[in-house]
Amino acid sequence: MPKKITIIQGHPDSTARHFGHELADAYARGAMAEGHEVRRIEVAQLDFPILRNQVDWNSGSPPDTLYPSQEAIAWADHIVLVFPLWLGTMPALVKAFLEQVLRPGFALVYRGHRFPQKRLVGKSARVVVTMGMPAFWYRWFFRAHGVRGLERSILGFCGIKPVRESLVGLMEATDATAREKWLGEMEKLGRQAR
Question: In angstroms, rounded to a whole number, what is the distance separating the alpha carbons of residues 33 and 88?
């Protein structure tokens, strides 16, 4: 059964294409080849402020530039988030984007309960992270703390599950053969909408 997929490209550099863009393209190519519908969000091309206080988080609204992103997330059955690992986690622009779009009223609702009602239940996600270090080292030594925090405390908190991950390590040392292998893997995952 075809799925609706929203791909969020989180590389903060809007002036160049990076391997993460190629991975997102490969995923989209595979998905569309199987008849899945695909929408894309390029975070680096969006203009929005960062949240600076709890009042704005609780009762403010996202800027008008982010309503199409909320609509694309609400529309999707499956979300693919692609970004480079910076200082062990997502770049600040990606975090700022998620804080703006996954606000109370959209991604969760507080109704006097201790925990909020999760509004994105029924959606799944894949997190694709490129990094300079070996992926096994990030998983083993650093325990993938930045990615785990995203999966548990942001996506899971809103009800998105399951959340799967693809950690692409040694980007500076990766040759063309290894890159082609990763692109093939992304295309396969896109066909499966996983």
Answer: 34
pLDDT at 157 over 80: yes
Output the CA–CA distances (angstroms, integers) from residue 53 to 56, 65, 99, 124, 169, in the order listed: 6, 20, 11, 29, 35
Q: What is the 3-state secondary structure (H, E, C) of 118-183?
A: ECCCCCEEEEEEECCCCHHHHHHCCCCHHHHHHHHHHHHHHCCCCEEEEEECCHHHCCHHHHHHHH
Mean pLDDT of 120-138: 94
Q: Give the amino acid at 92.
A: A
pLDDT > 90? residue 165: yes
CATH class of 4-192: alpha beta
Please state the pTM of the whole predicted model.
0.95
Can you tell me the distance from the alpha carbon of 13 to that of 154, in angstroms, rounded to the nearest whole number?
23
**Do the strands 4-9 and 124-130 form a parallel or antiparallel pair, or are they unpaired?**
unpaired
Give the span between the Cα atoms of 183 and 166, in whole angstroms: 12
For residue 72, what are the contacts with CB-CB under 8 A and spacing of at least 6? 6, 39, 41
* Token couple for 157: 């908190």
* C-alpha distance across the termini of the chain, in Å: 13
